[in-house]
Amino acid sequence: MKTWPLFIRWFLALAVAVFILSQLKDVLIKSAIEIASPKIIGAKVEMGSFSLGLLTHKIIIKDFRLYNPPGFPDQVFLVMPEVMVDADIPALLKGKMHFPWVIFNMAKVIIIKNKEGKLNVDSLKIVEEQQAAGKGKPLKLPVFKIDTLDLNLGKVIVEDYTHAPPVRVSAYDVGVKNLKIRNINGLPKLVTIVLLEALKPTALRSAGLYAATTVLGATFLPALALGIAVAQDSAHADLHDGFQRVYGESLKLVHDLDGRVKKKDRNHIWAKVYNCDVVFTIQDKGWGKSSVRIKAREFLLPRLEIANGLLYQLTERLK
């Protein structure tokens, strides 16, 4: 290398320095966000990776996880495998946070209702501070603007601790795809919109988020939380687990939920769980694979959220 011209050696050294600084930049920003988030949102945040491309104007965050606020189980609250942001770099250099386009790819949100009936969403610091702002206390938060948010949301899990043990778990396949929300002017509005969309199918009511809508003056937001009716009563999954294991874990799940097996045969388990009549239908697909379909009814009425909740718990046990 000593025989190379001086300008080539300087160029290589500069290239290495730029690469190291670019990597260090991402690490520092990631650490700063993880440190600041609990002070602003009121819950721990973790990210698998953070990347800011100064030339591409793109921010990509992988494996974003928001955890429950204090007073709730120490577990994940919201999971986003990917966040993509189109950043206005010239504005950022001037100290203004402007993002023309943001994509949230949310895998799941876990809503917890504690023994006192309070929701974990209402205990987030940013939600509590919005309520205080409605009573005249100023709200000091970073200011930014998102022109268009594309929201994708897969599943919402509800863990209800107000019932006698065991915990009652319901699940909802939301299936929100590229829901476009425009002109988001700040973190309170962003958090409120996302969480109300998550609550939409559950029929749960968040006093904190409703109070926040009053502060925000967004009259359309309460409509997001009206809930939806479903006519289906079954949840289905193809599994990379053998028939015997799935059948056995299904029986254990009924037992662990203090349910009662009423009848069973080669491919079916009829049970009483959460005061619902439940049927597990398990099929052997060969080569160590199987499928399961869970139906749930209460007083002859379909309870898809219960079927989805049982399927969610079964698949978690199989991991």
Description:
The protein has 319 residues and is an alpha+beta fold. It folds into 2 domains: 6-225, no CATH class; 234-318, Kinase associated domain 1, KA1 (TATA-Binding Protein, 2-Layer Sandwich). Helices cover 32% and strands 38% of the residues. The chain has 7 helices and 12 strands. The strands form 2 sheets. The protein has a 6-stranded mixed β-sheet. Strands 7, 8, 9, 10, 11 and 12 form a 6-stranded antiparallel β-sheet that branches. Helix 3 packs across helix 5 (207-216) and helix 4 (187-199) packs across helix 5 (207-216). The longest helix is centred in the first third of the chain and has 35 residues, at 6-40. Residues 16-21 and 218-231 have low confidence and may be disordered.
Throw out a few tags for this protein.
single chain, 319 residues, alpha+beta, six-stranded mixed β-sheet
Number of helices: 7
Order of helices and strands: HEEEHEHEEHHEHEEEEEH
- Strand residue percentage: 35-45%
- First-last Cα distance: 52 Å
Rg from alpha-carbon coordinates: 24 Å
Indicate the structural class: alpha+beta
**Total domain units:** 2
Helix fraction by DSSP (H/I, runs of at least 4): 25-40%
